[in-house]
Design a protein that fits this description.
Elements: H1 2-24, H2 31-65, H3 70-88, H4 97-109, H5 126-134, H6 147-159, H7 163-192, H8 197-205, H9 208-216, H10 221-236, H11 240-251, H12 261-271, H13 275-297, H14 308-314, H15 322-330, H16 336-360, H17 365-382, H18 392-398, H19 404-420, H20 423-428, H21 434-488
């Protein structure tokens, strides 16, 4: 374990150096003349990424056999925690999102509503000029985040006008949320699968994407994930009201946790004998959650336009994603607006069908956790946008049902996400077009690991789908026969 830990530290440092070199490498003269130098940097980055994922796999394999000594267990948990804390003190390199949080906070402090004025309009202001020196790019529109995160942005902006200190505060929120997520994974597996508790926790803690995208880049997905895991934990305790409240609070950071209310409701319905009491508690949770939403949205509420950013992010566009890549090809054959509606309908229907089928198969705690992992993966593949840090949620939920197939899927999504992490920066440096980035990122970041998921779980999914279709057909047949008998009588 000591050797793997030393390798992890060395590879983290190498990754930071190579990411910085790739980001700063720009076209000199022509693209053809500059490509050899970029190719050398990228080749080294790929080699380090392979080695990083090999160390990650080595840790998981070692922990799956059991860490016999106390020292090994302390290293297994302490090293990723220490690395994450150290990474939090470095400035973000790959993504400008944390600086957009700073823009939102500045807008709120100066009386501007981030749900009305796009963040990119700060480019011509003193705060925009100062942020540009740190690497901020003025590309974001109105805020797509929930009002709880907007409130946090306001408080951070009020706490200090100093940009590095604000970034550190956002990273402190991200890292503390990430560590709390690991603790909740530990608690959940301690209840459902105690023998794999340490293994599942390390699947999350040692994940390179979790460490780099949360601790280093400071994304707010960790806070959203914290409330989602808390909601699942309360659900496993059969406490419906806190489960609903936690999911709604998570939805006030990012909307995704609300998706998981259906599988949790099915689990609670099938495990609760007093269903009237269950309905009352769920209604109480819903009312409390809605009241919290009203309180946090009230200061920034501008009507239905408050959700313009969310709607814009939920609409297919030529962006790195399955709908985005398909739209890129479809727009040459049919009208753009028709293609957008068609893809929205197709992807929405496909995800809705999977969500319903996965929820209907839930019958105990383990099946609930497996369903949540599968739902997270399918949502990632069909969502209208993809960035490498989006895999943090599927990794955490898959860690709740660890197994050989799950490890293969997590490894595939992790490796591919780390591969495509600097692609957007390379494109901004002039080496290729936006559409090239969309296609390459979607194929490598989404479709290749999705193929691994289908190989690992395709037979199980097909079997379950066939059984559900058979049950549905039989149900329709029995209903039709009963109606015919009633009419004849």
């Amino acid at each position: 374990m000591l050797g793997l830990s030393a390798c992890a530290v060395a590879l983290a440092l190498a990754t930071i150096v190579l990411e910085s070199a790739i980001i700063e490498y720009r076209v000199i003269g022509s693209v053809r003349e500059s490509l050899p130098g970029l190719a050398a940097h990228v080749a080294l980055y790929i080699a380090v990424t392979v080695a990083t994922c090999a160390v990650y796999y080595g840790v998981l394999r070692l922990s799956s056999r059991g860490l016999a000594t106390r020292r090994a267990q302390v290293l297994a948990i302490g090293v990723p925690v220490a690395l994450s804390v150290l990474l939090a003190f470095r400035a973000p390199q790959i993504s400008p999102d944390v600086y957009t949080y700073v823009v939102h906070g500045h807008q709120l402090v100066t009386g501007i509503n981030p749900y009305v004025q796009p963040a990119k309009e700060a480019a011509g202001t003193p705060i925009g000029a100062e942020l540009a020196q740190y690497g901020w790019i003025a590309v974001h529109g109105v805020s797509p985040y929930g009002a709880l995160w907007t409130w946090i942005e306001h408080q951070v902006g009020r706490a200090t006008p100093d940009i590095p200190r604000q970034v550190l505060l956002y990273k402190a929120i991200a890292v503390s949320s990430m560590l709390a997520c690991a603790w909740l994974i530990w608690l959940i597996l301690g209840r459902v699968d105690p023998e794999r508790r340490l293994f599942g926790t390390l699947v999350f803690l040692w994940n390179p994407v979790v460490m780099f995208e949360i601790a280093h880049e400071g994304h707010n997905d960790a806070l959203m994930l914290l409330f989602l895991l808390l909601s699942i934990w309360f659900c496993l305790q059969r406490t419906a009201a806190p489960s609903v409240i936690a999911a709604i609070i998570g939805g006030l950071v990012k909307v995704v946790p609300l998706i998981f209310l259906l599988p949790q409701a099915v689990f609670l319905w099938r495990s609760e004998r007093n269903r009237w009491r269950l309905l009352r508690m769920m209604l109480v949770g819903l009312c409390v959650g809605v009241m919290i939403g009203i309180v946090v949205y009230r200061p920034v509420w501008v009507g239905i336009e408050t959700f313009d950013g969310l709607r814009e992010h939920g609409r297919p566009s030529v962006l790195q994603s399955t709908p985005g890549a398909l739209l890129f090809y479809l727009q040459n054959s049919i009208r753009y607006d028709i293609a957008v509606r068609l893809l929205s309908l197709m992807c929405g229907a496909a995800f809705g069908a999977y969500l319903l089928l996965a929820a209907l198969r839930i019958h105990d705690e383990r099946s609930l956790l497996r369903a949540c992992g599968g739902i997270a993966v399918v949502y990632l593949v069909l969502a209208p946008g993809y960035w490498p840090w989006y895999i943090v949620m599927p990794v955490a939920l898959l860690a709740l049902a660890p197994g050989r197939g799950v490890v293969a899927v997590v490894m595939a999504f992790t490796f591919c996400a780390r591969l495509v992490a600097p692609i957007d920066n390379i494109r901004r440096n002039g080496f290729y077009s936006w559409t090239d980035e969309v296609v390459v990122t979607t194929i490598i970041g989404l479709w290749l690991p999705a193929t691994v998921y289908l190989v690992a779980f395709g037979r199980e999914i097909a079997t379950v789908a066939a059984l559900d279709m058979q049950w549905a057909w039989q149900f329709v047949g029995r209903t039709w026969t009963a109606r015919k008998i009633e009419r004849a009588a």
